[in-house]
Amino acid sequence: MIIDELVSLSNLYGSNEELVLAGGGNTSAKDGDVMYIKGSGTQLATITAEGFVKMNRQALADIFTKEYPTDDDAREAQALADLSAARMPGEESKRPSVETLLHSLFPHTFVLHVHPALVNGLTCAVNGKAEAERMFGDGFIWVESCKPGYTLSKICYDKMKAYMSEHGKAADMLLLQNHGIFIAADTAEKIGDKLADVMSKLNAAVVRWSDFDSGDYDGEKAQKCFDVIYEVYGDDAVITYEPSAEALKFAESPETAQAVMKPFTPDHIVYCKAEPVYGFCNGCIKGAVNKYFEEKGYMPKIIIISGCGFFAVDMTPKGSDTAAILFNDALKVATYAESFGGPLHMTDELSDFITNWEVESYRQKQNA
After folding, report:
1. Is 357 a residue whose pLDDT tops 90?
2. Which of 42, 253, 319, 338 satisfies CB 3.0 to 4.6 Å to 314 for a cystine?
3. Where in the sequence is the domain holding 276, given as residue range(s)?
């Protein structure tokens, strides 16, 4: 059965930390008039058949012919309502992935969407599109950074129609700037072949790899940082300390830290907040955190300190560990982007939109 193949495909790629972190990524499969899509708040590594939402494909297609308001909030609310209405009977208790519409655009049976650091080293790079064309020719569609949800889906809808008209076949790969990759095929095996080809070409193009071995950090200074963080956040705070060689490299100065001071993808915002704070010493932490809170209304999750690396802070072990994992992912993206013209971050406007977007807030709560 297709749903069984979809579960196997999802578990396979979802359990590979080089491809999927936390609750990221999604998968789908089409069977006649029905599309199965990962439910929001589920994880690919452990998802079962019950974790997928059955969607009416015609109802999804009809969304692209509707007129929606130009106001962001009104447009996304109405599109989300139409997306919810496209659920098959009996699926009303499930929430489909926010990227359901993107999956529906592919005529292929299976679709895999992931955000590997290696791929995002390309999609989050200044020369990403040109380098992608050099490696993949015309075998993909490049999508510039834009607001997620219906806006992104409609842009992809128009681009995929144009690709079909020009090439006489449906596109089977999307590269989304500051986001990730979509791969589509009619069999799970072909999904794997396509992904392997992409990763192989990227591996060959990277000139510097991240070093996550423990670096030469200042242990005494790090301990004082722990003390100050507990003082500022409270004794219940959970701290994950990352003194890797790569973290120390980026933490060396305000200049080297610039590569990771802005977010690369929505996942980095969801799990690490939009920006970290930086300081030369443990004495900087209190003032930097207080200023951050005054400006943004919430505490930072990532604190970068020269000579120490970075500290991920949350009120739960899972939140702290996940923030550290995703920020290490950002370090990888910044490193790989060096091979493709240097890092390209999300715009402040887009970061603000993601920060306040209801759908991403829901996803974070589900994975907390």
Report:
1. no
2. 319
3. 219-366
CA 287 – CA 282 distance, rounded (Å): 10
Place of tokens 């609750």: 23
32 forms bridges with which residues in the sheet?
Answer: none
Spatial contact of 179 and 266, defined as CB atoms under 8 Å apart: yes
Output the pLDDT for position 358.
53
| CA angle in degrees (0–180, nearest 5) for 82-159-262 | 80
Please check whether residues 98 and 225 belong to one and the same domain.
no
Nearest-angstrom CA–CA distance, 368 and 364: 6
pLDDT, averaged across the chain: 94
- For residue 112, the 8-state DSSP code is E
Same domain as 154, residue 26: yes
| pLDDT, tens digit, 9 for 90 and up, residues 200-236 | 999 999 999 999 999 999 999 999 999 999 999 999 9
Rounded to an integer, what distance in angstroms lies between the CA atom of residue 352 and that of residue 269? 9
Q: Is there a single domain that holds both residue 14 and residue 139? A: yes
Same domain, 138 and 161: yes
Q: 266: closest CA among 112, 149, 182, 125?
A: 149
**CA distance to 34, 39, 105, per residue, from 88 (Å):** 8, 13, 18
More confident residue, 367 or 270: 270
